[in-house]
Amino acid sequence: MLAPERHELILRSLRRHGRLRVAELAAELGVSAITVRRDLAELDQAGLLRRVHGGAVGTNPLGAGQGAQLTLGIVVPNSTFYYTDVIRGAEAVAERYGARLVLGVSGYDVAVEAERLEKVLGVGVSGLLLSTALGDGRAAELGRWLDDIDVPVVLMERAFGFPQVRREYDHVRTDHAYGAMLALRHLVSLGHRKIGINLNPTVTTYWLRKGIDEAASTLGIELFVSAVELPGRGDERTATGELDAFLDECEAFGAHAVLMHSDEPAARLIERAMERGLRIPHELAVIAYNDETAAMAVVPLTAVCPPKLTLGETACELLLRKVKRAPGVTAATQHVSLLPELRVRESCGSALADRI
């Protein structure tokens, strides 16, 4: 069967059913799934249908009475704190273009993420914004599932590439390594040469470590990265021992400044340091990474603030340019890196000369 004949049969079946699946079409036409996907791609470029995960839908899948509102998927590890602003930014851009978002939340669980992706893609989205449960440090665990998504994908806060994936993906991410350098450079400007580091084990830590390693050689400073696990949200009451252990490490190392990821343990560290008689920032300067609740600490925390809202906006704009491109027009793959900013507050506002 020639391609034009297959195209006609595909369009007839689409008018009849409203939605097509690759596996069913391949069986019906007696051709391979690869051939069907190629046919759907050609018909999509011609504007005669719209490819979605696993098949295709009509160019007006919602029906003439409702209008053809563009639908995009967004799957993120959580919908609170860090990703609240990311989602808000993407949603604002989607609304501006008359599109809607369908949200899936994985809870940093790979199995849950697979289910969320299947449901979000199953509603017939035209494109996907994705921040996977797997960070860049775990890219080897990806397998091939990402390459099997057959709608445009823009990665958020992830930068997967060859050999973990077969093709290059658009991504928008914060340059967290630069953020770490920014914080340490500020502490050096205040006269600190020995600095303690404590990092929560999160996806962001992978990039912070890269920035910290670069800063150690570039700035010529002495750093130690503590292995003490400090409390996250909700478990501060039992953390006195861990906080004391980290403060003891700082004292032994001669560090009067620390960089901490993230806000909550940094705020608790300040409280414990003050209970031990240390003056903030004169005897201990503290910078937090994330700036979600840093301003509300007992001593407002200087913090590195990733551009979360801008990240969501930029990623959604990039996806929409790909989804709304004219038939036959390709869009170049883009890797966008956004710089965080340092918000200086009372927790590290004085130079060493002012400590006495």
From TrEMBL:
Annotated ranges, domain HTH deoR-type: 3-58
Origin: domain of life: Bacteria
SUPFAM superfamilies hit by this protein: Periplasmic binding protein-like I (SSF53822), Winged helix' DNA-binding domain (SSF46785)
UniProt xrefs under InterPro entries: DeoR_HTH, LacI/GalR-like_sensor, Peripla_BP_I, Tscrpt_reg_HTH_DeoR_CS, WH-like_DNA-bd_sf, WH_DNA-bd_sf
Pfam families from the UniProt entry: HTH_DeoR, Peripla_BP_3
GO molecular function per UniProt: DNA-binding transcription factor activity; transcription cis-regulatory region binding
UniProt keywords, alphabetically: DNA-binding, Transcription, Transcription regulation
Classification via Gene3D superfamilies: 3.40.50.2300, Winged helix-like DNA-binding domain superfamily/Winged helix DNA-binding domain
Classification via PANTHER family: ALANINE RACEMASE (PTHR30146:SF155), LACI-RELATED TRANSCRIPTIONAL REPRESSOR (PTHR30146)
Name of this chain's protein: DNA-binding LacI/PurR family transcriptional regulator
Organism of origin: Kribbella voronezhensis
